[in-house]
Amino acid sequence: MSHSPTILDGKKIADQIKDEISEEVKKLVASGGKTPHLAAILVGDDGASQTYVSNKIKACKRVGFEYTLLNFPETISESKLMAEIERINADDDIDGLIVQLPLPQHISSAEVTERIRPDKDVDGFTNLNYGKITSKNPGLMPATPYGILELLKRYDIEIKGKHCVMVGNSRTVGAPMSIIMSYHEYATVTTCHIHTQHLEKHTQQADILIVATGKPGLIKGDMVKEGAVVVDVGITRIDTDQNERGYYLKGDVEFDEVAAKASHITPVPGGVGPMTIASLLLNTLKASKKRALKRKS
Ligand SMILES: NC(=O)C1=CN([C@@H]2O[C@H](COP(=O)(O)OP(=O)(O)OC[C@H]3O[C@@H](n4cnc5c(N)ncnc54)[C@H](OP(=O)(O)O)[C@@H]3O)[C@@H](O)[C@H]2O)C=CC1
Ligand SMILES: Nc1nc(=O)c2c([nH]1)NC[C@@H]1CN(c3ccc(C(=O)N[C@@H](CCC(=O)O)C(=O)O)cc3)C=[N+]21
């Protein structure tokens, strides 16, 4: 039986969150507070990375944050990049720093990420913030998982006691998402990854199915239970000569087939992507307020 699911409109919810942040920034500044300031480092000229970073900068403008974009050539050395991070770490005006991933082969993403001051780590990628996920007083939460959770909450989707199946186990998305869903939200969680056998046996059990693999169209209609809530994190550019841009975007979920069974589903684009950016702004606001308090004390 085919029916229309509720579309989890990440673009719309992200716009609401941005409006809320704008209001707060206005009040903050009117009361003599400091304007939050985000810095972004982009290495190289990968088209998708440029788009994501420019979306982040646009979002900063929209909410009234200050921003600094540093774009370095592909050939920058690791030590030079580290020195730039140290410089931003020490810059008292800057509240948040993101280093867009992936980085070129000759640079260690793990070491670069770890060099960011944890109180400016608005991606939530450092070991300290990662560890604090399972703390009663979390630090800066990883942006994509935090954005997904906020999206589910704003659509009043019940998580407690539900079976959540996470497909993907990356450090930035899948692994922290699994932890948050079980530790904070009391879902019963199954994490699937490249070594999972009979993936469909697991996905078919999901009340909430979250997919972050970067494998376009991996999840087909017959892998999903009737009435499931489906969140598609994947975003891959597929070449085409059918449009001006020369590519279209495809998620990890075969949308039409899965939408015919799901109760709720995120689109690509317009789903998780904008929520990641909204979380980044929320983290930057939080970091900025915390730094302001520290300065006073
Ligand atoms: N919308 C947004 O805001 C964001 C979107 N993304 C997108 O989400 C996707 C995933 O990103 P990310 O987590 O960084 O990617 P990674 O490549 O780091 O991780 C992918 C994960 O999926 C697993 N995997 C790969 N293929 C399969 C398969 N066939 N079956 C089961 N598991 C599989 C991998 O296993 P193994 O570890 O063994 O390789 C790994 O755990 C990408 O398309 C990315 O562009 C990412 C971040 C934010
Ligand atoms: N340090 C770091 N932090 C990240 O948060 C980070 C990263 N590195 N590397 C790559 C992934 C990917 N990611 C996205 C952000 C926005 C959209 C986004 O805005 N998507 C739009 C469409 C974008 C388009 O048109 O291509 C949408 O889904 O509607 C997508 C993906 C953040 N990531």
TrEMBL record:
<dbReference type="InterPro" id="IPR046346">
    <property type="entry name" value="Aminoacid_DH-like_N_sf"/>
</dbReference>
<keyword id="KW-0378">Hydrolase</keyword>
<protein>
    <recommendedName>
        <fullName>Bifunctional protein FolD</fullName>
        <ecNumber>1.5.1.5</ecNumber>
        <ecNumber>3.5.4.9</ecNumber>
    </recommendedName>
</protein>
<dbReference type="GO" id="GO:0004477">
    <property type="term" value="F:methenyltetrahydrofolate cyclohydrolase activity"/>
</dbReference>
<keyword id="KW-0511">Multifunctional enzyme</keyword>
<dbReference type="Pfam" id="PF00763">
    <property type="entry name" value="THF_DHG_CYH"/>
</dbReference>
<keyword id="KW-0560">Oxidoreductase</keyword>
<dbReference type="InterPro" id="IPR036291">
    <property type="entry name" value="NAD(P)-bd_dom_sf"/>
</dbReference>
<dbReference type="GO" id="GO:0006164">
    <property type="term" value="P:purine nucleotide biosynthetic process"/>
</dbReference>
<feature type="domain" description="Tetrahydrofolate dehydrogenase/cyclohydrolase NAD(P)-binding">
    <location>
        <begin position="142"/>
        <end position="291"/>
    </location>
</feature>
<keyword id="KW-0368">Histidine biosynthesis</keyword>
<dbReference type="GO" id="GO:0009086">
    <property type="term" value="P:methionine biosynthetic process"/>
</dbReference>
<dbReference type="GO" id="GO:0000105">
    <property type="term" value="P:L-histidine biosynthetic process"/>
</dbReference>
<comment type="pathway">
    <text>One-carbon metabolism; tetrahydrofolate interconversion.</text>
</comment>
<feature type="binding site">
    <location>
        <position position="235"/>
    </location>
    <ligand>
        <name>NADP(+)</name>
    </ligand>
</feature>
<dbReference type="InterPro" id="IPR020631">
    <property type="entry name" value="THF_DH/CycHdrlase_NAD-bd_dom"/>
</dbReference>
<dbReference type="InterPro" id="IPR000672">
    <property type="entry name" value="THF_DH/CycHdrlase"/>
</dbReference>
<keyword id="KW-0554">One-carbon metabolism</keyword>
<dbReference type="GO" id="GO:0005829">
    <property type="term" value="C:cytosol"/>
</dbReference>
<feature type="binding site">
    <location>
        <position position="194"/>
    </location>
    <ligand>
        <name>NADP(+)</name>
    </ligand>
</feature>
<feature type="binding site">
    <location>
        <begin position="168"/>
        <end position="170"/>
    </location>
    <ligand>
        <name>NADP(+)</name>
    </ligand>
</feature>
<dbReference type="InterPro" id="IPR020630">
    <property type="entry name" value="THF_DH/CycHdrlase_cat_dom"/>
</dbReference>
<keyword id="KW-0486">Methionine biosynthesis</keyword>
<dbReference type="InterPro" id="IPR020867">
    <property type="entry name" value="THF_DH/CycHdrlase_CS"/>
</dbReference>
<comment type="function">
    <text>Catalyzes the oxidation of 5,10-methylenetetrahydrofolate to 5,10-methenyltetrahydrofolate and then the hydrolysis of 5,10-methenyltetrahydrofolate to 10-formyltetrahydrofolate.</text>
</comment>
<dbReference type="GO" id="GO:0004488">
    <property type="term" value="F:methylenetetrahydrofolate dehydrogenase (NADP+) activity"/>
</dbReference>
<comment type="similarity">
    <text>Belongs to the tetrahydrofolate dehydrogenase/cyclohydrolase family.</text>
</comment>
<keyword id="KW-0028">Amino-acid biosynthesis</keyword>
<dbReference type="GO" id="GO:0035999">
    <property type="term" value="P:tetrahydrofolate interconversion"/>
</dbReference>
<feature type="domain" description="Tetrahydrofolate dehydrogenase/cyclohydrolase catalytic">
    <location>
        <begin position="8"/>
        <end position="123"/>
    </location>
</feature>
<comment type="subunit">
    <text>Homodimer.</text>
</comment>
<keyword id="KW-0658">Purine biosynthesis</keyword>
<dbReference type="Pfam" id="PF02882">
    <property type="entry name" value="THF_DHG_CYH_C"/>
</dbReference>
<keyword id="KW-0521">NADP</keyword>
